[in-house]
Amino acid sequence: MSKDTVQSWDTNPANNLDIAGTSIAIGCPPSNVGIYMRTQMAQVATWLASSAGPLLRSGGTMAGAIAMGGYAFSGASNASAIKDNGTGPTGSLSAAADRRIGYRGMPKKTVSTAYTVTPDDVGYILEVVAGGSIIFPRNSTLVGSAQFSAHDSTIVVQNTTTGTITLTQATSSTLVNVADSTTGNKTLKARGRAIADLGLNVADTWYIGGAI
């Protein structure tokens, strides 16, 4: 098979006997070496500039996903999202779960009345538009994609109402006020904001701070 492109090169050196039909086998004419080098340069340049090359120089659409640090960065159709590939520790989300890039600002969700947080809320601002409560569940009883990953579970709660709302610890879970170490349900002040994060080494404990 003539080696006409970079993709046709063989990982076995013994199979690379020509380049674009010019012999580079042992004992080939010396003049073939110059032809080989120039042809190789042209093939590499063509590959780098093509859509099949390792990087896009300009324009075009990235296909597939780039995996890094246990996460997959999705392509142009979803370029603002980081996707958890689901192969991390217990509690990581499924491959379909988006994680937004922080430098573009935290996205928000609107919630009302009694609302129980889920892993899909991680990295979001929950804007409470009607009175009620935000419930923090007992994580150890959750299963699979419904379970949070410790220290990958930061959630912001924003009270947009003129009244208070309750931040509720579910049965057998614990809310800890990071300002004074008190536990139990907390009252989020009118138009107040709080940040909650699941503890790394303490099971079913949420650490929370803010206007409480």
How would you state the average pLDDT, rounded? 79
- Helical residue percent band: under 10%
Poorly predicted regions? 68-103
User: In DSSP terms, counting alpha (H) and pi (I) runs of 4 or more, how many helices?
Assistant: 1
Major beta sheet, specifics?
8 strands, mixed
Name the shape in a single word: rod-shaped
CATH class of the largest domain: Mainly Beta
Distance between the termini: 72 Å
Report on this model:
The chain has 212 residues and is mainly β. Helix content is 9%, strand content 32%. The chain folds into 3 domains: 6-49; 61-105, no CATH class; 106-210, Jelly Rolls. The chain has one helix spanning 31-49; strands at residues 18-19, 22-23, 66-68, 71-73, 81-84, 98-100, 108-116, 125-136, 155-159, 165-169, 174-177, 186-188, 193-198, 205-210. The strands form 3 sheets. Strands 7, 8, 9, 10, 11, 12, 13 and 14 form an 8-stranded mixed sheet that branches. It has a 4-stranded antiparallel sheet with strand order 3-4-5-6, with no helix packed on it. A two-stranded antiparallel sheet has the order 1-2. Strand 13 (193-198) and strand 14 (205-210) form a beta hairpin. The model is unreliable at 68-103 (pLDDT under 50).
